[in-house]
Amino acid sequence: MDFNDTPEEAKFRAEARAFMEANCRPKDSDAERMARRLERVEYLSAAKAYQKKKAEAGFAGITWAKEHGG
Predict the structure, then answer these.
(1) pLDDT tens readout for residues 6-58
(2) Which residues contact 18 (CB under 8 A, 6 or more apart)?
(3) Do residues 61 and 68 lie in contact, with contact meaning Cβ atoms separated by under 8 Å?
């Protein structure tokens, strides 16, 4: 079994890591408390904004078939 990345896998891994570093932060108790304080509409708005960023970067539906948006 070969656990080494192919060049394509290494490129994807680097792009995914860069996206995560730019758009996400580790979950901690402060983040969880903040999420509980948000109104449902604010929470939904933030979730939709993140999903939009993810889709624009090509990281939404990555396991889906291309004909279904992957």
Answers:
(1) 999 999 999 999 999 999 877 776 666 666 777 888 888 988 999 999 999 98
(2) none
(3) yes
